[in-house]
Amino acid sequence: MTDIAISVQNLGKKYTIGHQKSGSLRESFASKVRGLFTPSSMEQEEFWALRDINFEIKRGEAVGIIGRNGAGKSTLLKILSRITDPSTGRFEINGRVSSLLEVGTGFHPELSGRENIYLNGTILGMKRAEIKAKFDEIVSFSGVEKFIDTPVKHYSSGMKVRLAFSVAAHLEPEILIVDEVLAVGDAEFQKKCLGKMDEVSKNEGRTVVFVSHNMVAVESLCKYGLLIEDGIIKLNDNIGNIVNGYLNSLRAYESSVQKSRIMTLELMKLVSVKNEPNNLVKCGSTFSILMLIRNDSNIILDNVRVALGISNLEGQRILHLDTALNNQGIKLRSESATQVEFVLENNPLIQGVYFVTVFISYKDEPQIWVKDFMMFTVVEGNFYGSGRLPKKEQAQVLVPFNIKLND
User: Fold this and answer.
1) Under a CB-based contact definition with an 8 Å cutoff, are residues 61 and 207 in contact?
2) Backbone phi, then psi, for 122, in 5-degree steps?
3) What average pLDDT score do residues 17-36 get?
4) Is residue 3 pLDDT above 80, yes or no?
5) How far is CA 338 from CA 196, 253, 270, 326, 400, in A?
6) Contact (CB, 8 A) for 392 and 313
7) Cα radius of gyration rounded to whole Å, the chain
8) Which option is the CATH number for 4-251: 3.40.50.300, 3.40.50.261, 3.30.565.10, 3.40.1170.60?
9) What percent of the chain has pLDDT over 70?
10) 8 A C-beta contact, residue 200 and residue 231
11) What average pLDDT does range 301-313 have in this prediction?
12) Do you know which Pfam families this protein is assigned to (predicted)?
């Protein structure tokens, strides 16, 4: 028997994207009234989601696949899970595969949780007696005992993920493929899932392919990894080098310009009041995130919404800063640039690495959305004036407080 679980050779995936050709107002209106675009009114563009992908994964290895959103990670997993076919190249899978790529993967919404467990087991080629032997363990791990006979369509996304992962991990697949979907669950369940994947890989000798933005989780579970950028494998190495490569790519990406049809995000950077170097800021000090947004249209864009999401290295959202929260819409003057600055006084973040996701919309239509566009590091500071801070595992944020004593 070969010791290779997955072999990928010269793999590529091409999509054809249609764009409506620009024409007269009358032609555009007529096409919308008809409710369709004719082939002659469409321009075809080829987009390669993956190009020339080559790698091998041995049996029993846990391999992490990381990269920015849109890099091609999910497309690769869909090919390996036989959900979509490659455009070029070939791949070989030696073993039974169980995949968890999207919330509710493989579930029939009208069937109950119980019925879906048996359905999934049957699809994997298991006999009813085998599924029954695992049933109680699956339900117990998922924590949805009370709702096991309820149709899955009534489950929350978190409940679906719990049951889907439990089914995927316990029905004895030889290869377990898990995408970012675990981020939907709570932190406790994520930890539980990582422990199960570690057990499946190390103790049971099964292969795990794991995609996540949670660098701590990837490093704790995997020994090897792939870094994918723009549809190609940038690095195939031990997981420590892969994570460092990913973080370095984020730093390089911060200088890139982001554009939509009507605006451009020309600049985004961290500014520390104390001029700390290299995107460093201390706990308790004041810093700001500064953006330069250009209006590329010939009209004033009024009430533009700008939002920033700050997440930790584990992928958990810690802060959300949003002009909509204080009804402070941004006005972008025609064909000019506007500086927008979010100021955080007395930085409440505990020491660690953080990522900033940026979202900009106009009239409720998304214009620019980039996950993990910027990275910065918070180092120890004197938030409480005592020179002491809680440990990282004790807190996510710092808040001022007073103590009152009744003598």
Assistant:
1) yes
2) -65, -40
3) 54
4) yes
5) 49, 21, 17, 19, 34
6) no
7) 24
8) 3.40.50.300
9) 88
10) no
11) 92
12) ABC_tran, Wzt_C
